[in-house]
Write a structure and sequence with these properties.
This protein has about 300 residues and is α+β, with helices and mostly antiparallel strands. The chain is built from 8 helices and 8 strands, in the order E-E-E-H-H-H-H-E-E-H-H-E-E-E-H-H. The chain has a single domain, classed as 3-Layer(aba) Sandwich (Beta-lactamase). Helices cover about 30% and strands about 15% of the residues. A hairpin with a 2-residue loop joins strand 7 and strand 8.
Amino acid sequence: MPVVLPNLDPRITWSIRVLDATTAPDPDVLAEHTPEQVCRTASVGKLFLLVEVANRLVDGSLDATDRIEIPDELRVEDSGLLYRMLDQHLTVADAALLVGAVSDNLATNALAHLVGLDAIHAVAERLGYHDTLMLDYIRDERTPDLPWTTSYGCARELADLALRLGEGPGDTPGADLLPEEVRSKVLSWLAADTDTSMLADSFLLDPLAHVAPEYQGIVLRHKTGSVSTARIEVGHAAGPAGRVAYAMAANWSEADGDLRAVAIDAMRATGERIRAHITGVARDGSPLEGRTAEVTGERR
């Protein structure tokens, strides 16, 4: 059954795709809207950093107990906890966990400095992505001499990345980057993600404790991104009735005002329809069989 998207505000640039993960490696598309549209994706590009770090931990070129170093020129604040911590000399594994859990900017820059931006760029290229990338470090101020954004991408490629992380890479470009041991590490870091304020808000999970199956048996592994003119979420969600991989990006212009409420309302509405699809039940726990409207959003 398709997942029908809500009405989408035309003032917002959208890039959306929802895939039926149960039909991988050639998944059915359950919903999409301009999935090729490239958007600013804020922190979502950190997924490529986590894949690179996990690979180095697996091949032994990094040790989980190695300590990160933070160059003065890459010190940033805002998203995360590390910049507020007394002891910032964390292990590589703990820094990666902070990136997954609270999208920690300072830990991101430390890890990106450790492995190198070129290596992170190469991850996206080897996976076969042409329109999705973690382009640069996190910056407190993005001046004209710096890359135009931290990361960018389109829903077609980001939903595919979520699918490959959640289901396995199959016979796809860069499959050697996503063996089970690597995916397990990345997914374990994402399992701690505390930001369920967007699409995942409709899954009604405990934001601080959803490593194991939680509300209505949902298992969520996701990554979000936020800047003043964008909201993005990419994830893999599984329930007793199905599994999906999804990406939903919303970008808008400052000239149109602050449209975060409009964007997040649409993301939550999409999340509710995904929740119904993967659980097969209404929010109150009653069976959805024969109640198509609650899955598609159509009027009965």
